[in-house]
Every structure is written in C-alpha cells, then in structure tokens.
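User: tokens in, sequence out, please.
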C-alpha cells in the first residue's frame, strides 16, 4: 500500500512521500490486561469463541465503517452486545466493565495510560494507517529539506507516540503542552 500511495501522490499531485515516521494511527481492538489474561485473549482470533458472551464498544461511527465489517467478516466475530460510546467514554467503559473490548486508535495515549492490551490481527483485516512524511510540490525537489527531515524516517515507534499523546491527554499536574510533548518525543527519539 505504501508504494502505491507514494507513486500515486507523485504522479497525481507532485507530492513526494519521503517515508514512514515509524508509527501508525490505525484502528485496533483493545482490552484491559486482566480481562484479556483471564479470557486467554491476545488476538482477534482468540475472541471468536468468547465473543458471544462479551460486549464490544466503539465510537458511534465505527460499527458502520469498513474496518469493522472487515474484522467481523474475517474472523466471524459475533459479540453478545455492541455498544456505542463517545471516544473518550470508551476507555471508561472498559474500566467500569460496561465493555469487554473496544475499538481504539493504535497511537492513543490512553492505551499506555490504562496499560491496555492491543489485540493482534493475524488475518490482517485492519488496514494500516502509517504516519507519512510528505513534501508539497513546492519543496518536493529540495534536497536540503529532504536531508534535514531524513532523521525522522522510522524514528518514532507507536509506543513512543502513545506515551507522547498520554503526556498531553493526562489530567494530572504532569500534563504537557503539545509543544513540550513533541520536544520530549524528539529528544527520546534522538532527534
């Protein structure tokens, strides 16, 4: 998919895709660690026999999206209950037991904050949404800019991005501004 996007952007708009930053912000399914452990679940495939007794939560749009339909059909998942939550409340639903599994974004800071388990997708039903570094047509040919940005390629793991997002999303006295979190992330990545 990456090569297709890179070639299409260059051909259609003159945008140069310099590379992947190293993380993605894709859909995933998450559970509390203790619940996943008790059920013996580490992947979507592990949910198949257990789903009829479980509640899955998602944002109001998720259950209409092609990502949900692809996962549901690829694994034959049929949950006992399907519940809609505002994105912020999905995580609360896990901690309160209102949901056993939720749709989540892979780089969400609440995954790190709540120490959630992101379930593996062995069938690859969920598409990747890699964070890409792209240069506009105006600067696409500027070798100096490309060289200056090159250290960013592959430099930020999803775990590091989750931590940075959590630093901004947290509600305690340690909360950082987006700028301060980005600076800390850059330092951590050696940039």
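Assistant: Sequence out:
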């Amino acid at each position: 998919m990456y090569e297709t996007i890179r070639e299409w952007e260059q051909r259609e708009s003159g945008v140069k895709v310099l590379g992947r930053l190293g993380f993605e912000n894709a859909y995933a399914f998450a559970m509390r660690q203790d619940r996943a452990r008790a059920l013996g679940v580490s992947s979507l495939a592990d949910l198949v026999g257990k789903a009829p007794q479980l509640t899955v939560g998602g944002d109001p749009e998720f259950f209409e999206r092609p990502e949900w339909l692809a996962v549901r059909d690829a694994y034959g998942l049929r949950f006992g209950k399907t519940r809609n939550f505002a994105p912020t409340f999905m995580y609360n639903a896990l901690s309160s037991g209102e949901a056993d599994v939720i749709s989540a974004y892979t780089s969400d800071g609440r995954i790190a904050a709540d120490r959630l388990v992101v379930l593996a997708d062995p069938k690859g039903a969920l598409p990747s949404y890699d964070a890409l570094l792209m240069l506009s047509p105006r600067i696409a040919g500027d070798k100096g800019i490309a060289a200056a940005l090159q250290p960013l390629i592959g430099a930020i793991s999803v775990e590091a991005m989750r931590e940075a997002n959590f630093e901004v999303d947290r509600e305690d006295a340690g909360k950082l501004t987006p700028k301060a979190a980005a600076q800390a992330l850059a330092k951590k990545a050696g940039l």
